[in-house]
Amino acid sequence: MSLPCTAIEPLSFRKALGHYASGITVITSHIDGEPVGFTCQSFYSVSMSPPLVSFSVKSSSYSYPGIRQAGRFAVNILSGEQVNISNQFARQGTDKWHGIKWRASPLGNPIIADSLDWLDCEIHAEHAAGDHLIVIGEVKALNLQEAAAAQPLLYFKGQYCNLTAHGAV
Predict the structure, then answer these.
(1) Please, which residues have CB within 8 angstroms of residue 69's CB and are 6 or more apart in sequence?
(2) Which of helix, strand or coil describes residue 153?
(3) From first to last of its 169 residues, what are the pLDDT tens digits of the chain?
(4) Domain Flavin reductase like, which positions (predicted)?
(5) Pairing mode, if any, of strands 52-58 and 154-156?
(6) Cα–Cα distance between 122 and 139 in angstroms, integer?
(7) Number of CB atoms found within 10 A of residue 163's CB
(8) How many CB atoms lie within 10 A of CB 54?
(9) Helices in the chain by DSSP H: which ranges?
């Protein structure tokens, strides 16, 4: 059985995917003495052994070429208190690092202060997929922050939300 070949409208596709809640991360690296980074909600685990994670990024990204050149990146998992950081790193053409407190990870990647957690990775593979790249990283270091009361920054139906606002415990 085959389905009729119909075009999926990008706006409808985006709206349907908006029903899937996701966490928000900032992918960062350090190249030529400068930190680089961008907001990313398309992040997930791939493998436990070896420890692999993945994110997707637009092929036309201004930030990703520097990360590719560095060959490494950190995944900063944002807390519900970091909406402004998410917005700041989502913009192009501005100083994304203005006012951002960070320190270097074991691999030299920027770790954003007060993130829920971070993963320090080396690029393992990259695959073209439509208008995006799928980047797979091997986790070389991580740190679970002691922020038991902190909530993750979530994105659902085109807006930020938190677990308690929707009745979750």
Answers:
(1) 31
(2) coil
(3) 666 667 889 888 888 888 788 899 999 999 999 999 999 999 999 999 999 999 999 999 999 999 999 999 999 999 999 999 999 999 988 899 999 999 999 999 999 999 999 999 999 999 999 999 999 999 999 986 665 568 899 999 889 987 765 554 4
(4) 17-162
(5) unpaired
(6) 7
(7) 13
(8) 20
(9) 10-17, 64-70, 83-90
- Residue 140: φ, ψ to 5°: -105, -25
CATH topology assigned to domain 20-92+102-156: Pnp Oxidase; Chain A (2.30.110)
- For the chain, the residue count is 169
| Helix/strand/coil percent split, the chain, to 5 | 15, 45, 40
Q: Could you tell me the residue ranges of all domains in the chain?
A: 20-92+102-156
Can you name the residues that pair with 43 across neighbouring β-strands? 55
